[in-house]
Amino acid sequence: MSVLIVADTKNGAVKKASLEAVFYGSKVAAALGGETVVLTLNAKDPSNLGNYGATKVLNVSDASISASDPQKVVEAIVKAANSIGAKVVVFAHDSTGKAIAPRLSARSGAGLVSNVVSLPDTSNGFTVKKNVFSGKAFALVNILSDEKIISILPNSFSPEKGSASASVEPFSVDVSGISSGITVKEVKSESTGGAVPLPEAELVVSAGRGLKGPENWGMVEEMAKILGATTACSRPVADIGWRPHHEHVGQTGVAIRPNLYIAIGISGAIQHLAGVNGSKVIVVINKDPEAPFFKAADYGVVGDAFEVVPRLNEALRKFKAANG
Amino acid sequence: MKILVPISVVPDTTSKIAFTDGDTKFNEDGIQWIVNPYDEWYALVRALEITEKDGGTVTVISVGDATAEPVIRKALALGATDAVRVDTKPTESYVVAKELANYAKDKGFDLILLGKETISYNGSEVGGMMAEFLGFPFISLASKLDANGGVATLDRSTETGTEVVEVKLPAVISAAKGMAEQRIPNMRGIMAARTKPLTVVPASGVQGKTSTVKFGLPAAKSSLKLVDPENMDELVRLLHEEAKSI
Ligand SMILES: Cc1cc2nc3c(=O)[nH]c(=O)nc-3n(C[C@H](O)[C@H](O)[C@H](O)COP(=O)(O)OP(=O)(O)OC[C@H]3O[C@@H](n4cnc5c(N)ncnc54)[C@H](O)[C@@H]3O)c2cc1C
Ligand SMILES: Nc1ncnc2c1ncn2[C@@H]1O[C@H](COP(=O)(O)O)[C@@H](O)[C@H]1O
What we know:
The structure holds two protein chains of two kinds. Chain A is an alpha/beta fold. Chain A has helices spanning 16-32, 70-84, 95-108, 218-227, 235-239, 270-276, 305-323; strands at 3-7, 9-10, 13-14, 36-41, 56-60, 88-92, 111-116, 127-132, 137-143, 148-152, 167-171, 182-189, 203-207, 230-233, 260-264, 281-286, 299-302. Chain A has a seven-stranded parallel beta sheet with strand order 7-10-6-1-4-5-11, with helices on both faces. In chain A, strands 14-13-15-16-17 form a five-stranded parallel beta sheet. Chain A has a two-stranded antiparallel ribbon with strand order 2-3. Chain B is an alpha/beta fold. Chain B has six helices and 15 strands. In chain B, the strands form three sheets. Chain B has a nine-stranded mixed beta sheet, with helices on both faces. A two-stranded antiparallel sheet of chain B has the order 2-5. A two-stranded antiparallel ribbon of chain B has the order 3-4. In chain B, strand 9 and strand 10 form a beta hairpin. The model of chain B has no long low-confidence stretch (mean pLDDT 96). Strand 17 of chain A pairs parallel with strand 15 of chain B, so a sheet runs across the interface.
């Protein structure tokens, strides 16, 4: 049974979360004994998807077919899935997957599970594990319908890169009959100062109200710069305007799953943890040894941020100088 | 403008998450229920702002059993015109979306404004499904919204920035942070909410596409390693050699 993966692009390059979905989809296809086919939306040269397990790429080259206009993408997916006889469609649960996967589910009657963090278990039905309650718990969900849609949680699967190449075929679909009434007027890129955007970041340095005021963020930005990390903050800090809103992480902000999360002067309230507890390694710097964040941390430093952070920056600089 | 705001009832953000019946059911003991923050703070408040300015009505609708009613009343206290409860316990997004679409399909709503996701089952699924069932356009993750004269203009947030999008109404739009500021209900609103209509409609009995087999809690962090605040070289060494994260 073939698996179809829907991969979105940014300036022609397949997004990181979509690469994870391709890798995931290839594992599912291997288990089901089928082909790994990727539907790319306006990719420049997607043949490198072979490295992530794709056997075939169907590339749509039509700027009007984009995640901004889900109805048209759904049309393309339905046609592609039919052409290869796919019973499983895989997405990344990013802004693209969230816009499109539910529409596809309603259109085709295929059961959808989002925020998936495991490969399917097919020993008794078709069961996948998903994160619920903002990562505070998980659920095992069985998809009952014959056709299935899986939307995987970004940063949950690290692709092992191979060196195969995939065949690429242009794929066209007639969307002239679809008038969704959507017009994109303008695209504004967020200035993250060249850093990786938070949802995709592997290293994140974050600070909270313990920093006392916006004028003290210099040392946080410096740490991010040394590490090549992205900066984040707790909610009150964004609410009082010390930091931009897009930096706010947590239950009501951005949910992140980096390899390393360094939290400075953040108490670790449950709503903050809900957005960061998927981080692989957590370092907490807080002057209060009773701060709840220490319970969720791998490494803790009990101390005053204004002394500890400059010291850590110095140590990191030394390390970078020695290790390139 | 006639606006429909689907609201879900979720455990308060500080709730202890636990399961019963052999880990097959969420343990509701001692849980405080609230309106899902995205639905209340952003979708509902923005819907109220739009109708306060240009006239119109805001209907809130929730798929849930009778225990949801006190929470639905809170949405009425904030200023919604009326409320509807579709009488069934929600089990999965597909069923919820279909029930919502069944209710909405012949009511002539100009705008359906819902939250970007529930903080309980975190699917971000209901809006897109509902739009497909209704044949409406769907725009997810809007952080800013203006609507009048049959057109909505909004900012849609993606991982890398913002798109300014225009869409013809009727449409389904999901609300993210930034769309509005949280409001606190006042005494007048709370009093008025008691007599506002809350209509209960029967569910149509849609079949689900998935079934939850079991719940579980993530493995606890192994153990915290404290590092001497004077010795940050040691922390860097641990992050490099042990955690392999730098
Ligand atoms: C519905 C709801 C949703 C929410 N969503 C979110 C969310 O998404 N994200 C989020 O972050 N919050 C969220 N919150 C708020 C959350 O409950 C906390 O209030 C918030 O996370 C606290 O931010 P903080 O840790 O920066 O500040 P505080 O709680 O004030 O903590 C500051 C910390 O800094 C430490 N400190 C002080 N001085 C120093 C120093 N010199 N050196 C080192 N440490 C120092 C203190 O010991 C303290 O632990 C939400 C709340 C609600 C009710
Ligand atoms: N049971 C429900 N009743 C009404 N609206 C709901 C219900 N569940 C979810 N919604 C709406 O759909 C949005 C997205 O939910 P979800 O797809 O479950 O993440 C929520 O923010 C609500 O606005």
